[in-house]
Amino acid sequence: MVRRKNHAPKLPTALLIALVALAAVAVVPARAASVTWFDLPVGDSFPQGLTSGADGTTWVANRFASQIARIAPDGTASTFDLEFGVDPYDIVLGPDGAMWFTENNGSRIGRITVDGELTEFPLADRSNPTGITVGPDGALWFAQRGVSSIGRITTDGEVTSWPTITPRAAPLDITTGADGAMWFTLTAADKLGRITVDGSMTEAPLPPEADAPQGIVLGPDGALWITARDANRIVRVNGGGSLTSWAVPTSGAGLNGITVGSDGALWFTESAADAVGRIDLAGEITETPLGEGASPTGITSGANGAIWFSAPGTNRVGMLDPSVDADDTPPVVTIVSPPDGAVLTEGEGMLADYRCDDEPGGSGLAACDGPVPGGAVVPNTLGAHVFTVTGRDGQGNTATGTHRYVVFEDISGPITSQSVFGAGRTLPITLDLGSRPTGPTFAAGYPLVRRVDC
Predict the structure, then answer these.
(1) Percent composition of the chain: helix, strand, coil (DSSP 3-state, to 5)
(2) Which residues, in sequence order, are CB contacts of 7 under 8 Å at separation 6+?
(3) pLDDT band at residue 449 using 50, 70 and 90 as cut-offs
(4) DSSP one-letter code for 210
């Protein structure tokens, strides 16, 4: 142990993963959000893990700079130097009020107080610790990727380790589950692991829909939520071990960290897509673009309720308010064709023409669906038809528009052969539905009769 002062719903015991559903892929555009950026004091810091401290600031593990940084909501920053090259990776608020962090290259666990008092605890050589969490036993639990094991350290510095069942499984991230056990991702083995406070460990293979699991967090619904990098999906494992996954709209997004926001949704980073994603408990995904080169990795919910994330590509930390862009206004649906109340003949070939518009600054249009795509021939079978278009925005607000029309086999009478008639004349019209009409003869409220000025 080295000390120095620096001045500057219950889950089962046996793990079973069953694939029960793949959510439909929804094309959800970028979320309209405002990001506040904070430059780090040292160039090329390469920030990774970050978390909220007891002092209301956000603490950041800066890998390349070998520093722990502290950033206040107003942007005021301070740094604490570590030994060069120790590569601090992840950080968490400990039960003792100090910040605990993993030193990936240094193979140590660090502890630092708000006034900069640093203590470091050595681990096995080349253990390469990564994710860290607080267990229900008041100890710190961490993943040791280099030696494929799960470690535990008490606040007094006593270290215990358990090797993973699968050799060279490369555990990456770890969290405490609703059952009081620690759950961890095994990235090289495509498995999910579980260990109890007494060291009893189980593992379960994940399906292809959860390939390359990365970050893991306990959601507000009591389920485990995971980012699956190779599958490009967000995965949910419930208390019974059933798995559901949702595809991220941007392909090859490079999913990394995941956290629970103050809005009750899950927020995650997309390093390859330069974006932060959000998924609600119903599986609706929106994405916030950050600008080229941001490459976000770590993510956390700050003491101020905002979402904080590290952007090593730009040497900054970003902050966004999860509530600032709430959108409760549905899209506007416009149907040009078929006209409402139209009378068509079979084989006429009228083309559908409709659109959906989201309000400026809204969450963006997610879908605009009609009976046929725009530009296609409207349904043309004999009988009455209802043409309904549904629009949905990125926040899940929906709106519909409906036009009704009737398709006849033939329309005949004087109006089909001449265009000028004497005033007051009665004009017979024959509307022939043939022998194969579908639905009622006329839609509700039709036919319409009205006087017109000739």
Answers:
(1) 0, 45, 50
(2) 116
(3) low
(4) G
